[in-house]
Amino acid sequence: MAAYIFRRLLLMVPTLFGVMLISFVIVQFAPGGPVEKVIAELRGTNVSATARVSGGSQSGDFTGATSGSGDGSPYRGAQGLDPEFIADLERQFGFDKPPIERFVTMLGNYLTFDFGESYFRDRSVLELIAEKMPVSISLGLWMTLISYAISIPLGIRKAVKDGSAFDVWTSGIIIVAYAIPGFLFAVLLIVLFAGGSFWNIFPLGGLVSENWEQLSWPARILDYFWHMALPLTALSLSAFATTTLLTKNSFLEEIRKQYVLTARMKGLSDREVLYGHVFRNAMLIIIAGFPGAFISAFFTGSLLIETIFNLDGLGLLGFESVIDRDYPIVFGTLYIFSLLALVVNLVSDLTYTWVDPRIDFESREV
What we know:
Layout: H1 2-29, H2 34-43, H3 83-93, H4 99-111, H5 125-160, H6 165-179, H7 182-193, H8 217-255, H9 258-265, H10 270-282, H11 284-288, H12 290-299, H13 303-308, H14 314-323, H15 327-355
């Protein structure tokens, strides 16, 4: 097992390199950039990703730029600006160096987890990520736990009652739940329960109330879940459906195997067979998929939900950074997310061996 883990860790290096290289190359050909953003702000034509993004404190340093013959500039909107001013902008953002040199420097800094400063927020990338992470972790962790807590018992019940009326009508509900986009369901929840057109029961925006620090501990817990109720409901919809069907199919496959018939012939009750023999084998794929399910919810599931419910998390931060061309945040979060995804994939594989020691990755080629 040690050799397998070592090989997987070694493979992370070229994988990370490939992810960062492809992303860096794509960015070089993408229209716009931080220089164009500053120019647009100076001309009053810039539109940020969301209303919460400030106009960019660094751009204010150049409001005294003089007009000149900037007609030969490669940047859009730079006509009439002094070429020296444009050169200062390039030096500030590091674009005065060749792309290869910038890429190598970036990778060298990332090896020590030095992600630099945000272009437009006057804060380090690590500080921003640490500030936004509690929101995304809360969404991802609770969504995964809730979906598993509901889906596993329901999936087992559906497998035991396969073909019954219970299985049929619950499958209909699951299919409908899977077909409804999470963001659309989130809008419906807002309309119904967050003061949209009907009831104003739940708050819209923020992880906790403004007076959270003054509340008692029980009141803080209630306030936290009061704010999380609608986002978690919207996030759990599709995950609940997927995990339920996965659980049912996994248990059905095990129930139909020969060892189950043998156990029943020995006089064991259906409950003893189900939880004494079937459960461990059927739960293998479900338990092993838990880390991946959490990371999936953590990285990809919360972007629209954070935006709709005004939750300032990593998903919204990444979206705003891409729109605003804040490259240190874009590449920093990409590097961290890619590294975590690779580690979680390794943990998922190791979880298989923990659940079922018969699985041996040493005999497999990576």
